[in-house]
Amino acid sequence: MGATGKVVALDAEARHAPGRGRTPRVTLIVPVYNEQESIAPFLDKLSGVLDEIGALASLDILFVNDGSRDATERLILAAAAERADVSLINLSRNFGKEAALFAGMNHATGDAVIPLDVDLQDPPEVIIEMIRRWIAGAKVVNARRARRDGDSRFKAMSARAFYRVFNAMADQPIPQDVGDFRLLDRDVVDAICQLGERSRFNKSLFSWVGFEAEEITFDRPARATGETSWSYWKLWKLALDGIFASSTVPLRIWTYVGILMAMVSLLYSVALLARTLILGVDVPGYASTVILILVFGGLNLFALGIIGEYVGRIYTEVRQRPLYIVRSHHPSLKAKD
Ligand code: UDP
Ligand code: MG
């Protein structure tokens, strides 16, 4: 028996120490795609927030230029030339917001990151409260949209429907009306970057990695400048991507449909056979044809379901997600790795 059986006293500092002694640093990850009108207002608004955050934490801004074809890059470079807290990653073409965010998370160096949109729909002043919660101990701080001023009725409705369908099927539910705008502690970001899949749906990855999350609410304003580059078609594709990336239910469902069909068709076949034997043949070939169709239809679906089970397993394997994510170690072993 080791002599180290004593309970390690944990003060709040040891449990959670953003920045570990230094002023904690937060990286804002800002994906931008053809946003030349939005850069200046965004930086303006942010400077007010920077003043208010003051001694609490230092902020740096990491723009991820997702293949913009307008003056976005030039404007960001001009800002970066003037101030040390602005940096830029240029992607080689437009890869979409999900990929841009991932690039940002891979390159961010802060003790926490906050992805936010450049169009001021994720109001920068919310960041202050996020950082306060983080310093007080939260690993994840979600920002829930209380109102969606900028969204049409149809968009709000389809968003609600999406969350309902998604949460009914996914391995890990996602909080409703929480977008990518949230604070993620370094431990959480590292865990997310470790997930092996290529087709990534951030919202679902954020919740899959776990860690206790706190929630604050804000009113989501309409876009300040420019216009959204998300068409309904793009959103629909994102929704499908999200569901198929986070769930094998659409594959598995066929096993049950197949079993049900096979059972129903068996019963119907028996009834049909009995009727034909007792009452005789009224339409020649009807009973045998229908029975064959039903039996093979049921068998087909059932076999598809079984293949689906294996495809589902292959999918789980190729993603190479870690089997678990450690929240903390006591006494701390972190220095070893
Ligand atoms: N964005 C991006 N790549 C894209 C589309 C959008 O990086 O292919 C960025 C965009 O510049 C903005 C954020 O993602 O900073 C959110 O985009 P948008 O405001 O168009 O989406 P919405 O607010 O309508 O969901
Ligand atoms: Mg927007």
In short:
49% of the residues lie in helices and 15% in strands. With 337 residues, it is of the alpha/beta class.
General description of the model:
This protein has two domains: 12-247 and 322-336, Spore Coat Polysaccharide Biosynthesis Protein SpsA, Chain A; 249-319. The protein is 49% helix and 15% strand. It has eleven helices and seven strands. The protein has helices at residues 12-15, 39-53, 72-82, 97-107, 126-135, 153-169, 186-194, 202-208, 232-246, 249-279, 286-319; strands at 25-32, 58-65, 86-90, 112-115, 140-148, 178-185, 213-220. Strands 3-2-1-4-6-5-7 form a seven-stranded mixed sheet. Helix 6 (153-169) runs parallel beside helix 9 and helix 10 (249-279) packs antiparallel against helix 11 (286-319). It is elongated. The chain starts with 11 loop residues before the first helix and ends in an 18-residue tail after the last helix. The relative contact order is 0.11. The structure holds uridine-5'-diphosphate and magnesium ion (MG). Uridine-5'-diphosphate is lined by residues 31-33, 35, 66, 94, 96-97, 100, 117-119, 121, 223, 228-230. Uridine-5'-diphosphate (UDP) binds next to strand 1 and helix 4.
